Amino acid sequence: MTSNDYDPTREGAETDFARRMSYGDYLALDAILGAQHPLSEAHDEMLFIIQHQTTELWMRLAIHELSAARRAIAGDEVQPAMKMLARMSRIFEQLNNAWDVLRTMTPSEYTRFRSQLGQSSGFQSRQYRLIEFLLGNRNHAMLKPHTHDVETTRLLEAELSTPSLYDEVLRLADRNGLKMPAAVLARDVRETHSFNEGVLQAWRVVYEAPETHWMLYELAEKLVDFEDYFRRWRFNHVTTVERVIGFKRGTGGTGGVSYLKRMLEVELFPELWRVRTIL
Ligand code: HEM
Ligand SMILES: N[C@@H](CC(=O)c1ccccc1NC=O)C(=O)O
Q1: CB of 58 closer than 6 angstroms to any ligand 1 atom
Q2: Other C-beta atoms lying within 10 Å of the C-beta of residue 31
Q3: How many CB atoms lie within 10 A of CB 113?
Q4: Which residues of this UniProt protein bind substrate (predicted)?
Q5: At the top level of CATH, which class does the domain 41-246+255-278 belong to?
Q6: In the list 100, 103, 268, 270, which could disulfide-bond 195, CB 3.0-4.6 Å?
C-alpha cells in the first residue's frame, strides 16, 4: 500500500466480522456462488448456468410480487397491488434484456456441452410453471414432469386450486360495480379462463369511461403492460432457441421451436386485449 492509498478504516469502516454479520453472510453468497457446477470443459457452460440461475432468482421475486399482488387485490388493497404489478413489468424487462447476454453464445459453442444436459430442460422449471399457474395459464399436463417431486407437485396442485390473479381482478371489478357473469365468478379455477363475452362487455364500460372507473382502468392497464412484457419474454426465448439450435428437438422432448411458437398464442387476459377492437 502506498502512502496515498485511501484507508476507509480511518473514518470508522468496520473490518472485524469474526462475530458480526457481514455482506456475504447476509446474502448467503457462499451458497449462491458455490452453486455453479459445469459438467464440461466448454467455456460457455458457465454463461449458460448463470443465465438460468439469475433468471430463477428473478422468477423467485416475481412469484413473491405476484402472490402479494393477488392477496392485496382479494383484500381490496388496490394501490399496493399496482406497485407490485409495475415491478413485475420491470422484472420481465430485466429478463428480456438478459437474453442479449445469452445470444452471444453461438450454435457451435452450445454444441460443445449440450449433450451434458441430458433430458433436462427449462420445461421442468417449477418456478416458471408456478408463474404460469398464478397468471391463470393452467395446463394440467405441465404437472407431469414434476411427478417424481412430491413437494413441487403439492405446491403446483395448491396453486391450481387457488383463484388466479385475473380471477381476483374480475372479482374485485364485480365488487366495484362492474357486473361480471356469475358463471365466470363461480368458475372452476383449476382450469384456464377462456374468453368470455360478458367479461368483455364489463371491461368495455371501463374503457369507454376511464374517468368514472379510474381504479379498474389503471389496474387493467397494469395487467396489459405486464402481459406485453411477458409475451416479449416468450418471443425472445423462441428467437434465441431458433438462433442456437435451429429446429432440433428440445432436450425436454418437445418439438423445440414448434412447441415454443405455439406458446406465443397463449393469452392471459383475453378480454383486455379484445376490448381494444370494440372501442
Ligand atoms: C440456448 C438457450 C436455450 C435453449 C436452446 C432453450 C431451448 C428450449 C426448448 C427447446 C424448450 C422446449 C422444451 C424442450 O423440449 O426442451 C424450452 C423450454 C423452456 N425454456 Fe428454454 N432454452 C434456452 C434458454 C432458456 C433460458 C435462459 C431460460 C430461463 C430460465 C429458459 C427457460 C425455459 C422454460 C421456462 C421453458 C418452458 C416453456 C413453456 O413450457 O412454455 N430457457 N427451452
Ligand atoms: N431445451 C434445451 C436445453 C436447455 O435449454 C436447458 C437445459 C437444462 C436447463 C435449462 C435449459 N434451458 C431452457 O430450456 C435444448 O434443447 O437444448
Answers
A1: no
A2: 8
A3: 19
A4: 48-52, 110, 114, 251
A5: mainly alpha
A6: 270
Please indicate whether residue 102, judged by its CB atom, sits closer than 6 Å to ligand 1.
Answer: yes
The 10s digit of each residue's pLDDT in 66-83 is 999 999 999 999 999 999
Rounded to whole angstroms, the Cα distance separating 99 from 152 reads 27
- Mutating to test ligand 1, I would choose from 112, 130, 140, 241 the residue with most ligand atoms within 8 A of its C-beta, which is 241
What is the whole-number distance in angstroms between the Cα of residue 207 and the centre of ligand 1?
36
Which of 50, 92, 123, 127 for mutating ligand 1's site (highest number of atoms within 8 Å of CB)?
Answer: 123
Burial of 271 (0-12, 13-18, 19+ CB in 10 A): buried
pLDDT averaged over consecutive 10-residue blocks of the chain (279 residues)? 81 95 98 98 98 98 98 98 98 98 98 98 98 98 98 98 98 97 98 98 98 98 98 98 98 98 98 98
Indicate whether residue 121 lines ligand 1 (CB < 6 A): yes
Q: How far is CA 265 from the centre of its chain?
A: 17
If you measure from the C-alpha of residue 58 to the centroid of ligand 2, how many angstroms do you get, rounded to a whole number? Answer: 18
